[in-house]
């Protein structure tokens, strides 16, 4: 559902609106933002703006107000800000991992600096499987992939600060 186009100034707010009309517009925008976030938890910031056709500044004000009220929550995942309903329990990045991803994490926790090939050899799985599984782990900042002269190496990311080596047992 899109807002009906209204004449807007550079901030995305109606240009000729009285205070009452401006408050109504902001209330509508907040309701629509909340509706999209409720229907699609974890929606990325730019995707949210694109769906509603909202100006960034107007949406930022509305999102900040919704967060202040506790109606929504946000968190950074990788380079993206994602939005969730206020009452939704957010799991730590390490809790969102698959079984194979947890095994890869345990392997890297036991010895940082392993290459994808070394991890594959230790786990007895194809190197391509390691690469596919670790893409999401790098996005969640559970792992960090450093490209070096002799190939890539895995290190623990910032998303594993609360995770101990026995996580997932």
Quickly list its features:
Arc Repressor Mutant, subunit A, 15% strand, 169 residues, two-stranded antiparallel sheet
- Principal-axis shape equals elongated
- Widest β-sheet, arrangement of strands: 1-3-2
Q: Quickly give the CATH architecture of the largest domain.
A: Orthogonal Bundle
Number of domains: 2
The low-confidence parts are 1-5, 161-169
Describe this structure in words.
By secondary structure, the protein is an alpha+beta fold. The chain folds into two domains: 19-85, Orthogonal Bundle (Arc Repressor Mutant, subunit A); 93-160, Arc Repressor Mutant, subunit A (Orthogonal Bundle). Helix content is 45%, strand content 15%. It is built from six helices and five strands, in the order αβααββαααββ. It has helices spanning 19-39, 45-52, 56-69, 99-110, 116-123, 127-139, and strands at 43-44, 72-77, 80-85, 143-148, 151-156. Strands 1-3-2 form a three-stranded antiparallel β-sheet. It has a two-stranded antiparallel ribbon with strand order 4-5. Strand 2 (72-77) and strand 3 (80-85) form a beta hairpin. Helix 5 (116-123) packs across helix 6 (127-139). The longest helix has 21 residues, at 19-39. The radius of gyration is 21 Å and the shape is elongated. Mean pLDDT is 81; it is low at 1-5 and 161-169.
């Amino acid at each position: 559902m899109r807002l009906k186009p209204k004449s807007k100034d550079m901030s995305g707010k109606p240009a000729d609106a009285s205070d009452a009309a401006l408050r109504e517009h902001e209330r509508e925008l907040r309701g629509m933002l909340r509706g999209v976030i409720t229907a699609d938890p974890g929606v990325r910031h730019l995707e949210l703006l694109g769906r509603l056709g909202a100006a960034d500044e107007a949406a930022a004000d509305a999102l900040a107000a919704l967060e202040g009220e506790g109606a929504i929550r946000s968190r950074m995942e990788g380079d993206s800000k994602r939005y969730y309903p206020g009452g939704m329990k957010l799991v730590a990045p390490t809790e969102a991992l698959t079984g194979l991803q947890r095994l890869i994490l345990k392997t890297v926790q036991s010895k940082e600096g392993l290459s994808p090939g070394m991890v594959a050899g230790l786990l007895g799985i194809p190197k391509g499987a390691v690469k596919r599984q670790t893409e999401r782990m790098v996005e969640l900042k559970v792992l960090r992939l450093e490209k070096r002269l002799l190939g890539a190496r895995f290190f623990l990311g910032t998303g594993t600060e609360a995770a101990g080596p026995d996580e997932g047992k």
